[in-house]
TrEMBL record:
Coiled-coil annotated spans: none
Name recorded for this polypeptide: Large ribosomal subunit protein uL1
Any one GO CC term of the record: large ribosomal subunit
UniProt source species: Catenibacterium mitsuokai
Superkingdom, taxonomy of origin: Bacteria
GO biological process, one term: regulation of translation
NCBIfam families for this protein: rplA_bact
Segments passing through the bilayer: none
Subunit structure: Part of the 50S ribosomal subunit.
High-level lineage: Bacteria, Bacillati, Bacillota, Erysipelotrichia, Erysipelotrichales
InterPro entries: Ribosom_uL1_bac-type, Ribosomal_uL1, Ribosomal_uL1-like, Ribosomal_uL1/biogenesis, Ribosomal_uL1_3-a/b-sand, Ribosomal_uL1_CS
SUPFAM superfamilies: Ribosomal protein L1 (SSF56808)
């Protein structure tokens, strides 16, 4: 087990072990106990009562956070003709067809989000082993396989984040930066919380949100009464 640094240990002392904080209190503690010298990301992890062996309990999708994440995303769009022009006009960083895919096959991956029109998806199949593990493969469930490329680009640039349960039923998402106004971090958290409650699978019985924590990069976790 890795040894925690002195700053981390001191910061953690401000958090009462086992206590469930309101999201407002938790955000204030996260901001107060951040140990990074940079503008750290603030993340939330929900541990949900899901059996991910069942397809209907594998949650996946995307949400546009009300106040964004504080990170500017580099968007790559695979499209041709008018749709390529639409993507460029919407502010996509890289737009193209087969020539982009050829570069990716050689190892180029200088982007954070890939969007594709449906007609381009057969060409992308060969790159599944490259894009899949990095979470970059376009998917209709996250709105990245679409004919409305302008909307997809705008959402990706404006704070859209993807969510997906891991094998243990956890959903891990960024909700902003330590520099954000506390109210904006709370609003982003509440948008995610409301979404997860709304998409609760019918098969889930008993307590749905088993645990929830918020933390900053390299900072201690604070338990939230979710």
């Amino acid at each position: 087990m890795s040894k925690k640094g002195k700053k981390y240990v001191e910061a953690a002392k401000q958090i009462e072990a086992g206590k469930l904080y309101s999201i407002e209190e938790a955000i204030e503690l996260v901001k107060k106990t951040t140990t990074a010298k940079f503008d750290a990301s603030v993340d939330v992890v929900f541990k949900l009562n899901l059996d991910t062996r069942h397809a209907d309990q594998q949650l996946r999708g995307a949400i546009v956070l009300p106040n964004g994440t504080g990170k500017t995303k580099r968007v790559c769009v695979i499209a041709e003709g008018p749709k390529a022009e639409e993507a460029k006009n919407a502010g996509a960083d890289v737009v193209g067809g087969q020539e982009i895919l050829d570069e990716i096959a050689k190892g180029w991956l200088e982007f954070d989000v890939m969007i594709a029109t449906p007609d381009q998806m057969p060409k992308l199949g060969k790159l599944g082993r490259v894009l899949g593990p990095k979470g970059l493969m376009p998917n209709p469930k996250t709105g990245t396989v679409t004919m409305d490329v302008a909307k997809a680009v705008n959402e990706s640039k404006g704070g859209k984040v993807n969510y997906r349960t891991d094998k243990d039923g956890n959903v891990h998402l960024p909700i902003g930066r330590v520099s954000f106004d506390s109210a904006k971090l709370v609003e982003n958290y509440e948008a995610i919380h409301a979404l997860l409650l709304r998409i609760r699978p019918a098969a889930v019985k008993g307590t749905y949100v088993k645990n929830c924590v918020v933390s900053s990069t390299m900072g201690p976790a604070v338990k939230v009464a979710a």
